[in-house]
Design a protein that fits this description.
The complex is a heterodimer of chains A (320) and B (290). Chain A is mainly alpha-helical and 320 residues long. The two termini of chain A are 32 Å apart. Chain A has 14 helices and two strands; from the N terminus they run H-H-H-H-H-E-H-H-H-H-E-H-H-H-H-H. The radius of gyration of chain A is 19 Å and the shape is globular. Chain B contains eleven helices and four strands, in the order ααααβββααααβααα. In chain B, the strands form two sheets. A two-stranded antiparallel ribbon of chain B has the order 1-4. In chain B, strands 2-3 form a two-stranded antiparallel sheet. Chain B is globular. The chains are: A mainly alpha (320), B mainly alpha (290). The interface between A and B is large, with 44 and 41 residues.
Chain lengths: 320, 290
């Protein structure tokens, strides 16, 4: 076995044993790390590998969360059945946004801004139409049985998040080895050159955003089942979009483990500022402090480390 | 059942709000037109300027209108330095990079405001806030009319400055042809920093004009950023006239949207216009081909 594979196996073993050894509070933090890495990876597949920077990825997250919750609460579906439906819906929204934007020839910053506007439209709609219950949000009835996608012991939701994260890493790993992934990288590096090489740029970009949207929507359902409540600003708020972008960019956009490393890092900053606030009583407001650190990290990473923290581990020329 | 007086009041109120949007959008379009960067921190910088106006009033007792020269100068300096220290260094390569850097800046600014100023909504009580002017069937608050007129005067002054002064000529030369401008001896990097400074100075002016009738919270920037981008895209990226027309159109759209669709759903008009323009006519109404 190569060193990298050995490292992965050791990491996985540690992740499997970890929740058995620590209190519930830390199990929950571990769950959040893997969950954020998963939705970050969904951003990374479109934004990192294919270079289609999105500022509104939360549109897929919210679509997934609302689809499964509405199917469950209003139509009485079992959440395990609603999950694939929500995933498919996220894929559909990704397909739709991709077809509209890429047919209009939007690239770079313009694509980023239009995704932000789509997320805004979805947020306002979720706030206004009757079947989402508007600004009140939707409550899922608590009934903690595995058949209801609700677990009494946090260890199970932890393992589910770990599984999602693993699946996303395998998808990203596959992208680095498949022709599809190679075409995406070609599009990222130079779209016109990729087209000249005979790549159907439009079709590939639509495909990747569909995949990314479906993954992110699956994360939305997971979130709704974990917290049993969603409202328009949770499901479609700009904060989640930024979080997905941040973990990928900080860890290393377009790398397999970037979102996971970014997620670990941001959680570490979060806990560090929480600790700082507990010793320095003047800092009663923790949330903004950690976000300020995130913002500074984003600026530093874009300016100095285009490969993110992963770039520190790897030698060789940096991606421009 | 459409009461014309009701409608007229909606349109007038929209125009008055739009007049100030023009100033915000002119700053954004100037930065885009000259530097070809998308300044995602625009809304957050406006929020900071609004807090500056608020604290000048609260701590020193300066009326927001009287604060205009001070805040404009301060905003210019802030923009100039920000460009020199940070944005200018990375204003090359992929265009998403600068978008991400300005996103990072807006995260830092928004949360710094939240950390230091708290999340409360802050307003300024000016003595003339309750004065209304009767225009046809509509009662319009006096400060809104003052701000509207002042905003248009400032925009016209900026347009004149761009047309007539040497600095204005240099800025336009750089916007049209970077290399050529460099060859005739224009210090392009300084022109970039000055342009960014002027763009932020516009925000400073807008902040002074907004505060008598508006409020500020740390998330105010977020409320303005999509509005500003919509105006600029609608008018055509880089076009002054476009920003002016777009600002008024968006002001009226927002006001009528609120009137007919209600507070919540009414906001959807702006995002929809933004999406439709980008999809159907990305050059906007007055833009040249990119």
């Amino acid at each position: 076995m190569s060193r990298a594979a050995l490292l992965c196996a050791a990491g996985l073993a540690a992740a499997l044993v970890y929740p058995l050894l620590v209190p519930n509070y830390l199990v929950n933090i571990g769950m959040l790390v893997f969950f954020t890495a998963f939705i970050g990876q969904s951003w990374n597949i479109a934004g990192g590998f294919a270079g289609q920077t999105s500022f509104g990825h939360v549109v897929f997250f919210g679509t997934g969360a609302y689809t499964s919750t509405i199917l469950q609460v209003t139509y009485g579906w079992n959440p395990w059945l609603a999950w694939p439906a929500a995933t498919a819906m996220g894929g559909f929204v990704g397909w739709m946004i991709a077809v509209l934007s890429f047919r209009a020839g939007l690239r770079g910053s313009y694509f980023a801004l239009i995704t932000l506007a789509f997320a805004e439209v979805f947020r306002i709609l979720a706030n206004s139409v009757p079947f989402t219950k508007g600004g009140l949000g939707m409550l899922i009835k608590a009934d903690q049985r595995p058949i209801n996608f609700q677990f009494k012991d946090p260890i199970w939701i932890y393992y589910l998040a770990l599984l999602l994260c693993l699946v996303s890493v395998v998808i990203a790993w596959h992208l680095t080895r498949s022709r599809f992934g190679a075409r995406l990288v070609a599009i990222r590096e130079n779209e016109d050159a990729a087209r000249a090489l005979g790549i159907d740029v439009f079709a590939e970009k639509v495909k990747v955003l569909t995949l990314s949207g479906a993954m992110c929507a699956a994360g939305g359902t997971f979130y709704a089942q974990k917290y049993l409540y969603i409202d328009p600003s949770i499901a479609f708020g700009v904060d989640k979009s930024v979080e997905m972008l941040l973990v990928s960019m900080v860890g290393g956009a377009g790398t397999i483990f970037g979102p996971l490393i970014g997620s670990f890092t941001l959680m570490g900053i979060n806990e560090a500022t929480r600790w700082l606030a507990s010793v320095v009583p003047a800092l009663k407001n923790v949330q903004p402090l950690s976000l300020i650190v995130y913002g500074i990290m984003l600026i530093l990473i874009v300016a100095r480390l285009p490969n993110g923290l992963m770039g520190l581990f790897r030698r060789g020329p940096a991606r421009a | 059942m459409l009461d014309p007086a009701f409608l007229l009041a909606g349109v007038l109120n929209g125009l008055l709000a739009g007049g100030i949007y023009v100033l915000v959008a002119v700053g954004l379009t100037l930065i885009y037109g000259v530097l070809h960067i998308i300044n995602f921190a625009h809304g957050s910088l406006l929020m900071l300027a609004m807090y500056a106006v608020f604290w000048l009033w609260r701590l020193v007792g300066i009326d927001p209108y009287a604060a205009l020269p001070l805040v404009i100068a301060g905003s210019f300096a802030f923009g100039f330095v920000l460009y020199r220290l940070l944005i200018g260094r990375y204003n090359h390569g992929r265009d998403e990079n600068i978008l991400l850097i300005t996103l990072g800046l807006s995260i830092v600014f928004d949360n710094a405001a939240l950390l230091f100023f708290g999340g409360n909504t802050q307003t300024i009580d000016v003595p003339y806030a309750g004065t209304f002017v009767e225009l046809g069937a509509a009662f319009l608050p006096l400060p809104k009319i003052i701000s509207f007129v002042a905003s248009l005067i400032l925009c016209a002054a900026l347009a004149l400055y761009m047309a007539l002064s040497d600095t204005g000529k240099a800025i336009r030369a750089v916007a049209k042809e970077r290399q050529g401008a460099r060859l005739v001896g224009i210090d392009v990097e300084t022109v970039f920093a000055v342009s960014y400074g002027i763009g932020i100075a516009c925000l400073g002016a807008a902040a002074c004009l907004l505060m008598p009738t508006y409020y500020v919270t740390p998330s105010s920037g977020h409320a303005f950023v999509l509005v500003a981008f919509t105006i600029v895209v609608l008018g055509g990226m880089g076009s002054f006239v476009g920003a002016a027309v777009g600002g008024l159109v968006i002001g009226v759209t927002e006001s009528l949207g609120g009137l007919f669709l209600g507070e919540q759903l009414g906001q959807i008009g702006i995002s929809l216009i933004f999406i439709l323009i980008l999809l159907l006519k990305p050059t906007g109404l007055f833009g040249s081909k990119a």
